[in-house]
Write a structure and sequence with these properties.
six-stranded antiparallel β-sheet, globular, Jelly Rolls, about 350 residues, 9 helices, binds 1-hydroxynaphthalene-2-carboxylic acid, alpha+beta
Length: about 350
Amino acid sequence: MATLALTPAADVRALRAEFYERLKPHGLAPLWEVLAALVTPTPRTPVATAKWSFSTIEPLLMEAGRLITAAEAERRVLILENPALVGRSRITSTLYAGLQLILPGEVAPAHRHTQNALRFVMAGNGAFTALDGEKAHMHEHDLVLTPNWVWHDHGNETSEPMIWLDGLDIPLIQSLDASFSEHREDRGAMPTTRPAGDAGVRWGNNLRPARMSAAQAGGRRNPLFIYPYEQWRETLEAMKANEAPHAHDAYAMEFTNPVDGGSVMATISAFARLIPAGFATRPLRTSDGMIHVVVEGSGKLEVDGQVLDLATGDIVVVPPWASRQLTASAASDLVLFSYSDKATQEKLSLWREALL
Ligand code: 1HN
């Protein structure tokens, strides 16, 4: 091999190419050709920055409502596909987002699966999600969880349609090839086993069952599955009244599992934020790509120098490790709900941020 240094570059390339071809039938490939693309100094993501407006999606979802029933569809959802990942049913490399419609009188039948799901109510009041036969009636801007492997169905006994955002870890579970699911034989709802709102009063009021040791409670799947808008909104308002905004976050809080204070579900973290009128956050990067829903107000989001206007009802995705900066319009506070795979990354000691 001492002669390799003297061999013309074109010949070396040809020798190597011929060698690589002979490796293929053995199920082998040279690492050195791909190493730099595999182990990058900072994240390289296929995810593009993108925005959807509720006002554009709503009429299309109502049209879907005339074409297919919730029972027929199982879940009547329009998927928010990242424009750089069309056909792959994902908004980031690990997360899925969709808008689901349930019309008056409809039932979305009970099923369970290994994917974790959250719902964030975009429009409507009073339809329910039931977990293991316990209903939670949902109202605008409530956060509702269906952690993995819990039976869940949805129903709408009101006279108005309800639309919510579904956030799931579908691509993450797909990358692990760990999807399992079951459906009720009768394609209906689970029988009601506990009164509506039971989880909220048992777990949402800073209490836990006395006959449960700390060890039993710790690491338990989150038993609280509804986080009402008026509660999380009150917190943000009080913070604004009581302290100056953080330079990078303004006012940001994470929704927690009351059992251990950790993320709401094993893989997904959820957040509420308020940017006061006229305030601009300093830019930051985080290793979790993030989906933001504009709940109130308007403003701007700058992602790696690209400026997006934000209006109430917009849904935006910020790629992992992109620099992001939020500005609230002078007229009103900007209130956002967000979710990401931070919970997964923290468990794997991956999560990082850079304050710019
Ligand atoms: C699901 O279970 C729901 O329960 C919504 O409402 C969307 C997308 C993929 C897989 C499961 C729901 C879903 C989903």
